[in-house]
Write a structure and sequence with these properties.
single chain, mainly alpha, two-stranded antiparallel sheet, 4 helices, elongated
Length: about 150
Amino acid sequence: ADKKEKDKNILNKSLDVTSTASEAKLTSSASKKSKVSLSVVDCHQETTDEQALCALTFESIAKKSALIPFLNLEKASLEVLLSVSNFLHAELSSLEHNIHFYIGQYQVSAKSHEEVNCIRLSKVAIQDEQMGEAQPVRSLVEVGTVPAPVNT
């Protein structure tokens, strides 16, 4: 029961992120806590050191990723607003580029597969035609007409 409680506490600690003093200026309230949704971590199979490292890693990631959504943009300076705007514009532009790139790759792959299928189907059709035109080969030797060897 104690191990399960410790595992639960470690997992809960890894999900809680409290604002630090420097980040408190950027949030609307220093007492706010942000939650980071994480996939379920099975702490029962990890050692204590691994659990502590896992908790520190999640806390670090959560602090960095929780910073932007809780910026107090109403009171932010023009430079901060411009910086956030430029960052978001660059991210969206990159995302749009990647979407167009992958759509293009998909279209090329689909066209390539279509061409390969057409080539294979035409080869099969040619083979079918050749097999249809082929005449059965008749044996020139009839059964029972082969002379028996002569013993001398």
